[in-house]
Amino acid sequence: MKDETPILQVKQLHTHFFSKSGVVKAVDGVNFDIKPGETLGIVGESGSGKSITAMSIMRLIPSPPGKIVNGEVLFKGEDLLKKSEKQMRKIRGKEISMIFQDPMTSLNPVLTVEKQMIETILTHENMNKSQARERAVELMDLVGIPESRNRLKNYPHEFSGGMRQRVMIAMALACNPEVLIADEPTTALDVTIQAQILELLNKLQKELGMAIVMITHDLGVVAEVCDRVMVMYAGKPVEFTEANSLFANPKHPYTWGLMNSIPKITSKKEKLEAIEGAPPDLRALPQGCSFAPRCKHAMEQCLTIDPSITKVEESHHVRCLLYEETEKVIST
Amino acid sequence: MSTLLEVKDLKKHFPVKGDSLFTKEMKTVKAVDGVSFTVNKGETLGLVGESGCGKSTTGRTILKLVEPTSGEIYFRGENITSFQGEKMRKLRKEMQIIFQDPYASLNPRKTIEQIITEPMKIFNIPKRDRNKKLNRLLDVVGLSSYHKVRYPHEFSGGQRQRIGIARALALEPELVICDEPVSALDVSIQAQVVNLMEDLQEEFNLTYIFIAHDLSVVHHISDRVAVMYLGQIVETGQVDELYKNPKHPYTQALLSAIPEADPTIQKERIVVKGDLPSPSNPPQGCKFHTRCPYAEEICRTVNPALKQVSTGGQQAACHFVKEVVEEY
Ligand SMILES: Nc1ncnc2c1ncn2[C@@H]1O[C@H](COP(=O)(O)OP(=O)(O)OP(=O)(O)O)[C@@H](O)[C@H]1O
Ligand code: SF4
Ligand code: SF4
Ligand SMILES: [Mg+2]
User: Fold this and answer.
1) What chain A residue is nearest to B242 in terms of C-alpha separation?
2) Does B51 contact A at CB distance below 8 Å?
3) Angle between helices A129-142 and A113-124 (to 10 degrees)
4) Is B3-82+207-259+268-327 assigned to CATH 3.40.50.300?
5) Where is the ABC transporter domain (chain A) (predicted)?
6) Least enclosed by CB within 10 Å: which of A99, A259, A280, A325?
7) pTM
8) Where are the domains of chain A?
9) Residue numbers in B near A243 (CB within 8 A)
10) Whose atoms come closest to the Cα of A288: which ligand?
11) Cβ-contact B251, B272 below 8 angstroms
């Protein structure tokens, strides 16, 4: 059963980068919450602010040039943005863990997997070295690495891509985190290996009960693993709802565009419906709705009014002027 | 329909250093290991498979960007396998390639004009014609003439891919080998480029070999498909037939592994065990047997040959798929 109190709440998050050529509004008003045991998808194209959202939560934004200029990140009710770096170090890797597209960003190439795992475990847990080693073996078994005890002695490069991903997941789970942020964990993998890793994450979530924030650009992955989903465009959430209703009843013109541009193997169309144009330069966003220059449904007022988030149905929120007559819940 | 390209038992083996640091033992990676297929004029043959299965090497070997180890390549009926120097250079006019990475494949110090007209210069096309052609090419790929003086870094990924396509079309080739041309692009941009490629195919009667790991894109664009695994074709056929009714266990697994953007589809997923074996040390017998849910004793020793498995021309290489003999 899912506990109804959110474990993590992100409110009005704004993360900007101050570069010579202007201010990049990488994340500009992101709101979401996630409950224990739930999987929340963040989906959007390259540069839409998915990774910067994740790194803001972890407080890993390089500063300068980046800065979280506004917002709150409430983890079990406490604002992580108010914590000291020392306090954050206790939280990162223990209570909130992150995995990446490229496992080598979190693995050290010159240390054996055993050394790295033991180090992580000892940083956070009150164990001696041999207990930590046993825990490492347990973790390797948990993520399905055969001959775990021997494989611990290997260096990261001695594992295949899929196995390395498993090693990274094992490290991230070392201290039973309550939230796992997965930033495109399967993007670099072949489909058969992707299927294995998604199945593994699903199994681990059932066993361990953590909340997963799944960042992806692949709507297929969303359909497969997510309970709820936030669609991002140009730094802002444009649609937020249950995964089932996103697919059954998408509301935002950008979401329509995304769904129409992917070829499906179950049906064949003469022509894909591409979204014309390209995402905007985040240093010089158009006035009004950021999607307006590419939107087939754009109206006169879209060029001047930046839409706010509107609740169109129970737990279905959209940022689009087509729905503005309905009740407003959050204004920016 | 006439055959434009025929590849017979093509092999490309690369020597590589062995795993051990202490011996100088050399191994061979059998990147392409006995591949045969034909491509008809005006059609698109999709070449799919996972990383390291030899799809790109197959494409590059056909263009002789790498020399084949053995086998034969026929272009318009002529055996081009041993073409060298001037003969090969002339042939390159007819066969072009588009690469995956729009960032790496364009020279950053050249303007778009220089990049697109370069192949025409090499073939001594007069300046006047070059300019005319340049304008036409920019137009067909959806770029504007003011883009001519700009450099690659000033373009988005989708635009760079359009530039790569314009350059590939500059010499009016017959065959274009497209090596993961949309894999690096976001879906909305990917759809633009796929549509563009289809329009150009129609307009210029192009023949494509479309290499990709994304089975949905291949399904959309291809007429026929060949599925590769560890250097060999394991299944081939008309696209609709092959996707609807895959016969080889690997094709079945691949298709069932695609996450579909529709939660109402409940697929029977065939999860294959383990990892792709190293191509420098592939399994004996059927190369898929280490991961195949149906493997039996014979699979460990005997490598199955491609055989006809439908009346529609579908072929699969598996001991346990029933051969279908065409009736005349
Ligand atoms: N160090 C930086 N300096 C300036 N701008 C940055 C920096 N890091 C990120 N950005 C910008 O912030 C925006 C959002 O980036 P982010 O990495 O969150 O995108 P994403 O949605 O994760 O994309 P992808 O799908 O490509 O991973 C982009 O425009 C990016 O260029
Ligand atoms: S607000 Fe206007 S431009 Fe923006 S998505 Fe809605 S209809 Fe399109
Ligand atoms: S020959 Fe055997 S191992 Fe190979 S695909 Fe068929 S059943 Fe599987
Ligand atoms: Mg990212």
Assistant:
1) A265
2) yes
3) 110
4) yes
5) 8-259
6) A325
7) 0.88
8) 103-174
9) 263
10) 2
11) no
